[in-house]
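Q: Focus on the shape:
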Amino acid sequence: MPRTRWTAALALIVAGVAALSGCSSTVAVDTPPQADDPRCAQVMVLLPDVMGDQQRRWTDAQSTAAWGDPTTVQFACGEKPLGPTTLPCFTVDGVDWVVDDSRAPLYRISTYGRVPAVQLIIDYDAVSSSGPVSAVSRLITKRFETTAKCVAPTETQP
């Protein structure tokens, strides 16, 4: 008899978890090439559950995160570091970021001169870049080695 109660209780717990996780789907993203870098794991456990007013969602790739439903912010750690570029670069909390707005309103914002590289994709129509960039900068500034700096950082941020 106790075994039947245990099985019933376990079935209720599994059903409850399935019902709660069914509220928002998993975000499909590509795994960054250096996703297994231990520094990415250190940052992943520190990422916030809420970015602005956007709730964090599950992703299907290592060293990635997403917020919002539909997704408004994506995070990827372990990207290939950027080489020299003519794209705008700005510094937040000691971290240089390069902005690619070629797919606006989706902005691809990548660390410059950090190993491993981190990338944010932000839907600028839904979220200002300053919140996510600042939050991530604080997490990586002392954990990721600096290998280069922006030559002429821009004064204005996207």
Observations:
- The first strand starts at residue 50 and ends at 51.
- The CA atoms of residues 54 and 68 lie 5 Å apart.
- The first helix runs from residue 2 to 21.
- Residues 26-146 form one domain.
